[in-house]
Structure formats: structure tokens, C-alpha cells
Write a structure and sequence with these properties.
heterodimer; A: alpha/beta; Rossmann fold; 2 domains; about 35% helix; B: alpha/beta; six-stranded parallel beta sheet; two-stranded antiparallel sheet; about 10% strand; disordered C terminus
Chain lengths: ~325, ~350
């Protein structure tokens, strides 16, 4: 065991991939000389050189598309996009090319590409750097979408993502990079297909992912003090969703609260809610409740941003309203 | 200074070289006729609903596809657009597999999943069939990047139209390829119209090769109605690209004789303009050249046409006898299948 950060765990995952497979390279804006906009790739240019740590122009569509082409050409690219907001500049390549290539070529051309990007709010960077649009990508067949919320997942999801023959998007919540914790010295690959029970409980199921996992766990601690035993599920894989895990949990606890930093309308939380209703409606003792971001472009002012985001108190209130 | 006199076999060498060139030019003619007649058959098949969806024909533009692709090697890659029947045929994908694709059959080169706009073929490194204008350019840059990183002396030929030049992806890709000195041969098939809107209504600078120059990329303006000129330019450019000369840009000046797609009533083009370009049809031009130089004898063209017609008949019969994919397989290939499943038929 040693103390590390989410950022460092992610960096070690990238290093390991670069060391173990010559086909792997990292490209994106400021990944090299700057060291990564969130300092994830700091030092990698010096260690691996400019051919494998490639600074790109501010051309999201071209370098994401080049990642797709390079993947089809036999490489295993890791493409970093600064934030999910900027990924919209590459939406054409991700949705129209990466996600469709295997299908529209009748199974001939798979795209073994990993795209990493920061997502989420909480750092007062306002309405063009803070949104949680991973739910949009989770909508698209042909993509796998991952949300590492723990150090273990930050360290362990990249390797299996690179082994996946198809495109994988990894959404790293910007608020997590500085999170510190203990990580086993031999921490390695983790499963990238299932959700995880992060806290077992009997009275209510709280479903979260990425940046909202800590919110959900914080709420569970508060509730425990009141004698409410909450189970916390971390979705981990946003597409394809591991429905069985959260549905089984709700079947046991009979109550569900979903915490999602995305907007409520048409969100991942809506999908999770619909699946609970479709599969375990008769096990529910109360309606499904969602705690989402306010439906506003993210404001700059701290008190407004806090108000817009799902907070521990909001989750605690939601659970209490369920009468758990 | 000693004069080098021709050796005793020099005359024979020249004769052999000329014979090879003649054969090659007949091959170019055959390829263009195959494409032209294939496209004409597509119109018939569309009229009787054997082909549906969008259908974009390359009639008039055959010299571009044939000339460039002739200059490539088997290990090179091709990225094309939704007007790519000619490219896939020139690249050596069978007419059977192409026609079966247009008819949506499992025997098609994309298993009937892609249709006219999404022809793919792994065996010939044909990467589509990309129907987002400009969307293929980043893919070509990436394929070339993979070759660069793996030290393979290959060329990626990327076809796109003049319409793509207005897309950000064009500029981003040109810059990235030039910046990283990647082996891409950019082939702009400038047919003067982005669907129904003339270049002059969409571009502040209509000299497209200047745009390449602004990325410090060597560029050529080529008569896209002359297959020999296209091949010659492409061969020179591809050789430089292959040997580390960085990306090159060919502006192939061409024209489509028919409307943009089967849905297009072609209101935006002047009839005299169309007739003017038709008078420069690349196929009669080459026939005339080969006849004048006595490469084509009486009856040769008729025989060639008959062979092509037979090939098309065979392809149509093959497509129509093809198999509809089982609806149970609708979700196959959304994601890759485990290797053991791929290995089974």
C-alpha cells in the first residue's frame, strides 16, 4: 500500500501501457511539453519522447479522427481531450466514425481506440468547461463509456480499455484528480463491464458514478448516523450499463435514489430510473428519486455552482423523503 | 567524350516498353468503362428499386479514381467518400461484392450494412465509403500516422470533394498531416459543386491548391478528365509521399455529368456548362487517343464493352441471388465479437 492521487494513478496506468505495448501512444492538446492540462501526463514526454507523447494542435476533430485512423492502422492510441465540452468539437468523429465503423463495414474494421477526457463541475470554471455530457456518449451504440471514480479504477481501467477491440471513452471527473488515498502497490487491471457495490446497505439504494460517488458515500455516512443503512452502487461502466447489479440492489432495498451530475432531462439517471421501473417496479416501496444538476449552464459564482450541483444534503433529503 | 551508341537490343526494349504502355492504357480504358457501365446499370436498378437509399454516381469523374488508384501499391490505403463506386472497383474489389452491397446482400463488401455510401474492403485496405463530408480526412491522417509510427513505406490516398474544403476537418487534417510530415496523398475531386451550390458561392478563394500551399504542402492542379495525366501526377506524388516527402495535394479538376444523387433535379447547373464538360468526357478522349495511335484496332472497343457488360450481368445476377442477412443478426458488429465467434463462418 502507498499513498497516491487519482492523477498519479492515471499517470501510472498510462506509463504501464506505454511500457508494455509499443503500439500505444498518447496524443492530445498540451499532453507533452505542458505536461497535460490536469498534469496527468507530466514527465511522460521526457520518458517516452515526442513520437509517443504527441502534442497536437487545437484540432479536436482531426486528432480524434487521426486516433481512429491510427487504431485501424494497427496502433493503440490514447487520445486525451481536455474536457467533455471540447469533445463536442470531435463529436462527428466519435459518433459518426468511431462508433459506426465496425458495423457499417460489416465487421471488417474495428477501432481499438481509447479517448480520455475530464468531465464535471465544481471548480468554478463556468459554462464551457464544467458539464457532464457523458450521458450523451452513453446513448451511442458502438461505444464503451467508463467513469473511474476510485483510485483503483483510475489505475486499473485503462489497460483493459486498451485491450478492448472497440472504442472506449474514459470520463475522469475533474474534481477527482487531487483526491488522495491508499492504493495497493500491485494494483492492476480491473473489470470494465460491471457496476460495483461501494457500500453495502439494506434500506435504500443510492446509484452514482464518477464525481457523484463521493457525494453518495458522504450521504450514506450521514444517513447511517440516523440509523438508515444505504447501499451505494458505483455504475463504473456507463455503456453498456450493468443493469443487473443496481436492479438486484433495489430489489433488496425497495428504494432507489440516483445521483447524476448531468442534467435531469434525458440523462443517465433517467435511463437508470427507467430500467429500475421496467425490471423491479413491484419491488419498489416508493417512487424512484433523482438528484441531478440544476438545468442551467454552469454558473461561475461559487454559491450558485454549489446550488446547481448535487450535494450530500440533497441526497440525504431525497432519501428521507422516501421514508427509508 | 565517348558517345554511347544504342546496344543491339535497345530497339527491342523500346518496343517492349511501348507495348507495355499500350497495354496499360487499354487497362485504364477498361477500368473507366467498367465504372461507367456499372454506374449506368445502377440507374436502371435504382429505377426498379433493386437499389435504394442515396445513390451518388461518378459518371464523368472516372479518370480521377482510376488514375490515382493505378498509382498505388497493394499495401497502400484508400479513404473515399460516398461517391465511391468507381474507387472501390478501381481498387480491385469485385464487381460482384460491390453490386451485392448496393442490393443490401450479405455477400456485399460491407455485408449489406453500408450500402452505396459505405463500401469497405479490408483485403484492399479500402476504408470507406465515408458520407460525412470532410470526415474521411482525419481518418486518412491517422492511417498515415500508423504507417509513420511503424516505419512502413506506405501511402494513404484520401479522396474528397470540393465541398469538403469548406469543412474545418479539411483544414485541421491538412495542417496535422503537414505538421507531422505524414504520408497522405490528398486527392480533391473538384467537380465545382458542393451538392447543388457552386464553389464560387461557398469559397472566398476558389483556387483550392492555394489552400494546400498555405499548409506548406506541395500541390498540383491536374486535368481530372485525362486519366493519363491523373495517373502521371499521382504516380509522381505517391512516390515522393512514400519516400518521406510528406503529404501532397492533388486538385483533380473534374465534373459529374449527372445530378448529385438520384433525388437531385439538377436545377443549379447550366445545360451548356454540362455539355461543355461532356465534350471532354475522359472515356471517348482515351478511345480517340488509342485509336489514333493504332493501339485499339477495329472491334477491340466492342469486345471490351462486351466483356464489361458480361461482368456487370454476372455481378447483378450474383447480387440478386444473394442472401438477406438474418434479422437475428441485426445487432452483430455493433461491437467486436469474441475471436472464437469470428473464426466460425
Amino acid at each position: 500500500m502507498s499513498t497516491t492521487t487519482y492523477r498519479e494513478a492515471m499517470r501510472q496506468a498510462i506509463r504501464e501501457a506505454l511500457i508494455s505495448d509499443d503500439r500505444v501512444f498518447l496524443m492530445g492538446e498540451d499532453v507533452g511539453h505542458y505536461g497535460g492540462c490536469y498534469a496527468v501526463s507530466l514527465g511522460l514526454l521526457e520518458e517516452f519522447g515526442a513520437e509517443r507523447i504527441r502534442d497536437t494542435p487545437l484540432s479536436e476533430s482531426a486528432f480524434v479522427g487521426a486516433g481512429i485512423g491510427a487504431a485501424m492502422g494497427g496502433m493503440r492510441p490514447i487520445v486525451e481531450i481536455m474536457t467533455v465540452n471540447f469533445s463536442l468539437l470531435a463529436l462527428d468523429q466519435i459518433v459518426n466514425s468511431a462508433a459506426t465503423m465496425l458495423y457499417m463495414s460489416g465487421g471488417q474494421f474495428n477501432v481499438p481506440l481509447v479517448i480520455r477526457m475530464a468531465t464535471g463541475a465544481g471548480r468554478q470554471v463556468a459554462a464551457q468547461h464544467s458539464h457532464s455530457l457523458e450521458g450523451w456518449y452513453a446513448h451511442v451504440p458502438g461505444l464503451r463509456a467508463l467513469a473511474p471514480a476510485t483510485l483503483e479504477d483510475a489505475r486499473g481501467m485503462l489497460g483493459p480499455a486498451l485491450e478492448d477491440p472497440d472504442p472506449v471513452l474514459i470520463f475522469e471527473h475533474g474534481g477527482l484528480y487531487n483526491v488522495e488515498g491508499d492504493l495497493a502497490d500491485d494494483a492492476g487491471p480491473v473489470d470494465i463491464t460491471t457496476a460495483a457495490v461501494r457500500r453495502p446497505g439494506a434500506d435504500v439504494t443510492i446509484v452514482a458514478y464518477g464525481g457523484t460517488l463521493r457525494t453518495a458515500l458522504g450521504a450514506a455516512e450521514h444517513l447511517a448516523a440516523d440509523g438508515i443503512d444505504a447501499e451505494v452502487i458505483d455504475l463504473r461502466c456507463l455503456r453498456p450499463l450493468d443493469t443487473a447489479t443496481f436492479v438486484a440492489s433495489v430489489a433488496r432495498t425497495h428504494r432507489a435514489v440516483i445521483v447524476d451530475e448531468g442534467w435531469r432531462t434525458g440523462s443517465l439517471s433517467a435511463e437508470v430510473s427507467a430500467r429500475i421501473v421496467e425490471e423491479v417496479f413491484y419491488d419498489l416501496d416508493a417512487p424512484v428519486v433523482r438528484v441531478c444538476s440544476a438545468e442551467v449552464p454552469m454558473p461561475y459564482a461559487k454559491h450558485l455552482e454549489d446550488e446547481a450541483l448535487p450535494q450530500v444534503a440533497d441526497v440525504v433529503d431525497a432519501v428521507r423523503r422516501l421514508g427509508a | 567524350m565517348t558517345k554511347h551508341l544504342p546496344g543491339p537490343d535497345a530497339g527491342a526494349k523500346v518496343t517492349r516498353a511501348r507495348a507495355a504502355e499500350n497495354d496499360h492504357n487499354v487497362h485504364l480504358l477498361r477500368q473507366m468503362i467498367r465504372i461507367r457501365r456499372f454506374e449506368e446499370r445502377c440507374v436502371e436498378l435504382y429505377s426498379r428499386s433493386a437499389i435504394r437509399g442515396f445513390l451518388h454516381l461518378g459518371i464523368g469523374e472516372e479518370a480521377c479514381a482510376v488514375g490515382v488508384i493505378e498509382a498505388l501499391l497493394p499495401e497502400d490505403a484508400v479513404v473515399a467518400t460516398y461517391r465511391e463506386h468507381g474507387h472501390v472497383l478501381a481498387r480491385g474489389v469485385s464487381m460482384r461484392a460491390t453490386m451485392a452491397e448496393l442490393e443490401g446482400k450479405i455477400e456485399g463488401c460491407s455485408r449489406g450494412r453500408g450500402g452505396s455510401m459505405h463500401l469497405f474492403d479490408a483485403a484492399t485496405r479500402f476504408y470507406g465509403g465515408n458520407a460525412i463530408v470532410g470526415g474521411g480526412l482525419p481518418l486518412a491522417v491517422g492511417l498515415a500516422l500508423a504507417d509513420h509510427l511503424q516505419g512502413r513505406p506506405r501511402v494513404t490516398a484520401c479522396f474528397f470533394g470540393d465541398g469538403a474544403v469548406a469543412e474545418g476537418e479539411f483544414h485541421e487534417s491538412m495542417n496535422l498531416a503537414a505538421l507531422w510530415h505524414l504520408p497522405v496523398l490528398f486527392c480533391c475531386e473538384n467537380n465545382l459543386y458542393a451538392m447543388g451550390t457552386a464553389l464560387e458561392f461557398t469559397e472566398s478563394e476558389t483556387d483550392l491548391s492555394l489552400k494546400a500551399s498555405s499548409y506548406r504542402m506541395p500541390s498540383w492542379k491536374v486535368d481530372g478528365m485525362d486519366v493519363i495525366a491523373v495517373e502521371d501526377a499521382a504516380r509522381h506524388a505517391a512516390e515522393v509521399v512514400r519516400t518521406g516527402g510528406g503529404p501532397h495535394f492533388l486538385e483533380l479538376r473534374t465534373y459529374r455529368f449527372r445530378a448529385h444523387s438520384m433525388y437531385d433535379s439538377d436545377r443549379y447547373r447550366d445545360k451548356t456548362e454540362i455539355e461543355g464538360w461532356k465534350s471532354r468526357d475522359p472515356i471517348p478522349a482515351l478511345v480517340e487517343h488509342l485509336t489514333a495511335s493504332a493501339v485499339l484496332a477495329d472491334g477491340d472497343l466492342e469486345q471490351l464493352e462486351a466483356e464489361v457488360a458480361a461482368e456487370i450481368d454476372d455481378a447483378v445476377a450474383f447480387a440478386e441471388a444473394g442472401t438477406d442477412e438474418a434479422v437475428e443478426d441485426l445487432e452483430r458488429f455493433v461491437t467486436s465479437e469474441p475471436v472464437q465467434r469470428l473464426a466460425s463462418p
